[in-house]
Every structure is written in structure tokens, then in C-alpha cells.
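Session log. Operator J.P. requested a structure for one protein chain; no other inputs attached. Running the standard single-chain path with C-alpha cell output.
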Amino acid sequence: MRRHVRAVAAQWLVPLAGDTAAVVTAILIGDRAGLDEAVTRRLQVAGTFHVIAISGGNVAILTALCLFIFRLFFRRDQIPVWLTLVIVVGYGLVVGRDASVIRAVIAATLYLGLRLTGLVPRPTHVLALTALISVVADPLVVLDVGAWLSFGATLGPISILPRLMGDAPPGPHRNWVMALRLVKGLFLATVAAEIVILPVAASVFMRVGVAGLLLNFVAIPAMVLAQLSGLLLVVLGSWPWLHGPASALALTAHNATWALTGSAGLVDLVPWMSWRMPPPPVVLTMGYYAMVMLALAWHGRRWVKRGAVGVALACACLIVTAPWAPWQRPAPGWVRVTMIDVGQGEAIVVQFASGHVLLVDAGGSAGTFDVGGRVVTPALWALGVRKINWLAVTHADVDHVGGATRVAGDMPPLEIWEGVPVPAHPLMGDPRRVAQTNGAAWRRLQTGHQVELDNAVIDVLHPPIPDWERRNVRNDDSVVLRLRVGLVEVLLTGDAGPEFELPFTPGESSPPIRLLKLGHHGSRTSTGEQFLDAYAPTVALVSAGQDNLFGHPSLVVLERLARRGIDVFRADRDGAVVIETDGREAHVRTVTGRSLVVTTVSPAARRPPSLR
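Structure written below.
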């Protein structure tokens, strides 16, 4: 059956549009393999991806459609219920073992089975029994985010919607009243679902918005139309003498899909309707749900219910605005440098006492995991960062620039810096487009550039002006930045190697407390003997992934550091590493609990600049 659905989609829908075939196939059998990543991303941002993620809605539509059709031919209620039950169970077997479909089929089976006994169960009872069966079958379902969203999106409309809708007022214009109630019901059903799943979406997806409240007026009817026309096309599309009706159904499915995916473009036109945000504290989430439950369950004095609603609204406002984020900023007068743990990659954020923020690289990977959106942006939020002034890309390797596009979209920087350009390299195209869209300045750094702030100076030590246009990315072209704060200096070397290290001299103005971020994740091609002797760092930082395939950091480099008594902090073992300084001393700490305070009187800082 699944093969037949794909064949019909390929025959009738692919000639109209590949996206149409992919969307209809996803809606009918849950096969989202053919969906374009851009379409998926657009629907997720718009908040309407749920309409193509096959779930309870699809099963409910199928159930209602079968009951309606069979009742046209059979007067007795049991025969349509039996036939619908067989089709729904068969549909569940065809679609596969997707958890959301299984839960929906269980709910439909419970409802139809009770109807066969002459009972008309309440929706909340069916939902509760479905939840109980799901937990008994698999206790780990209580940790499944998909289950939270499925049950929450169902619980909202069936428990909150009736209270919001009220009774239909009598009147002579009953058809108009029913039409208006239908529109009102669709809007309030979306509101009711959002009330229940708001903290979950904020905590898990770190995105909230109001676009779905409007887009569901298009997305849900379009999904229903695409599903119905798709189902009929699957039945009629294989009969040659029904070519005319099949063509009409294919065109209907195509137009419905176009409306569904095209409506998500509203977020591109009005981006403020959907925004990223830090996950809320657990206490705030628990308080929100407690107030919602109290407002629904309380039957005593009205002021208690109204108070619960007011507190829930206040909690919702706190969840969507996250006013607590600035509390995590460095203390006044201090500068914080954080090496974020992005696995086998690199991302370092500098928070200045003036409030400016510099992000040096944004991690990335060759796979599909979104390091920028799922790791770097949340880490910035946790550090109290709400906007970025400068985003520096040391060079265009994927483990340095792969997450830059997403981070720049979440927190549009005022400027994006690059070193030696590689015009033909595809990974720099997306950050450049984001810069153009957001009006960010694009600047090219080279040796000698400098940025001065209140108590800090950023010097660009590398690269020099290139002699030829690069066709490929080179590690030795990495941007090298030196951050100086009073008596403390942090050297960020990217993946730079011998071309930077061999001619390097610290200079007479180099302060006594020096912290070095090892080049190329601690590879043996960087951090040479001569460079270590010339720079004499106090602390070494290594940004590398746990058990990475490259063997970073190299044992040779670690031995060089050990011989010189240099303290080493590694992301693969220590997690994120935080350095805070007021210009007189440097405090180093990690998420695993390691800590170190370096001052000008400590043995490490008084070590002579050359050890042979």
C-alpha cells in the first residue's frame, strides 16, 4: 500500500511539483523523506509543521470521513462504526509504527469500540485512557516530547475550547452564525492548544510565536483538502477510465499544498511573528501549569479562577519574553571569555564590560545536527547574551562556520568579520545572505586592525593581505585575534599553524598573564615548540570533541605543554570553559567544577618568557 501511494504520487503529483508529491505523501503515510529541507524549516518556523507531521489530526479526519460516507449507505449505526474501525486499524498498520499514529489509532479504536457498545464517551475520558494505555505499554513515553505535544495539543481544544466558545446564540441568521462560530472555533482551538503546549515548545524548540494563530486558518483547511483529495486520488488514480477525475484531484491536492507551504511565507514578511527565546526555568513552567489546572478545575468563588488566569497570563508573558537572561551577564567591570563546548568544532564568545559581544566562530558539523541553533544560541542565552555586536569567522571550515548562519539568524549581528576570502566556497554564502537581509556590515580583517573598548583592546594579528585569490580554504589563513584586558591577554588562534606561529613575537606590550587557545584543536601541526617558548602562556585551552576521529588534542602537543607546566583546559573533558577577568587576574572555571585563579604573583604568571 505504501508503495502504491508513492507510485500514485509520482504519476500524478510529481509532474505538477515535487514538493506537492512530498507533502501529500507525508500527510497520507507519514513518509517525509522527500520533503525539501527549506520547506520543512519554513513550516517549523511558521508553527504549521504539525499539519504534515502525520498524527491524531489525520486519523481524526479519516475517521470522520469514513463515518460520514458509510452512514450514507447504512442506516444502522453499528455497521458504519465497524467498517470505520477496520479501516482506521488498517490505516495504522499501513502508515507504520510512528508513535503519534499509534496513539491516535488507540484513541480512535477506543472511541469506536465504545460506540459499538452503545456508549458515547467523553473526549477527555478517551484521551485519559489512551494516555494510560500508552504509559503501560511503554513507561518511557512520559519522557517523549512528541507525546507531550500530541496529548497537549489534543487536551487544549477538548478541555479549554468549550469554555471559550460558550453556547450558540439563537437568531434568524443561523447559517451566518454557524459560519462565524466555525471561524471563531478554529481560532480558539489554536489558542487552546497553544495554551497547553506553550512551555513545552519554549523549552524544547526554543521558539514561540503568534503566526500559527493566523496561519492555521489556511494550513488546517489546506491539509484537510490535501488529505481528502490525496486519499481519493490513491483510490481512483490507477483506473485509466477515471483520468479526468484523477487529474482534478491531483490539481486540487497541488493547490492545497501550495496554499499550505506558501502561507508559511508570512513569517518571512513579518519575522516578529515568530521568535527564538531561552528555555524557561522549570519552576516557572510548573507554576504556569498549576495555574492553568486551577483555572480549569476550580468551581468555587470566581475571584480564585480569575486570579489563577491572571497568574497564568503573567507566567506566559515571562516565558515568551525571558527577562531573566540579562542577569547572567558578567559582573560590572569584568570581561568574560567562554569557550563553548560544540564538539569537534569551535565557538568562543567574548562579553565585554561595555556590554558589547564578540562571537568568534559558531561551531558546525558535516551532519544534519544544527549546532548553531541547538548548542551555540542556547549557550549564548545562558550567558545573558541577547544580541551580538560582531561575529568573526576565522575561516570557512564547516566546524567553524557551519553554525554561523543559524546564530546570525537568531541574534543578528551588527557586523560579520572574515579574513582571507574564498569566493568559490559555498559555506560563506549563507552568512553573507543573512548579513544582507539583516543589514549587517561585512568586514574583511587583516593584520594591524584594532578595536578599542572601555577596558579592552582587540588586535588582529593574522592574516596578512593575501597575494593571490584563494580557491580553497586554508587553516593558515585563519583570523588570529588577541584580546587584552589590563594585565591579562587571551590569544584566539583559530586553526592557524606554522605560517602564523614561526614569525610570531609577543611584543613588549604583551601582559604577564597569557591564555592561549591552541590552534587547530590541538593538532600536532600547530602549537610548536618555538611558538610556545616565545609566547609562554599561563593557560592553554583546547576546543575538541570527545573521542574525535582526528585524535585532537595531539599527545605531542600535550607533552609540550606539560613540560612547560602549562595548565590545560579541554572542552572534550571539561565541557565549556569560562574565563573572567578584571584586568588584574584571571578566573578560569569549567562546567565540571575545575577552577583556577591566575594572578601576576602566581608561579605560572611569573615564569620567564623562554624555557629551553
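Operator note: The chain has 23 helices and 18 strands.
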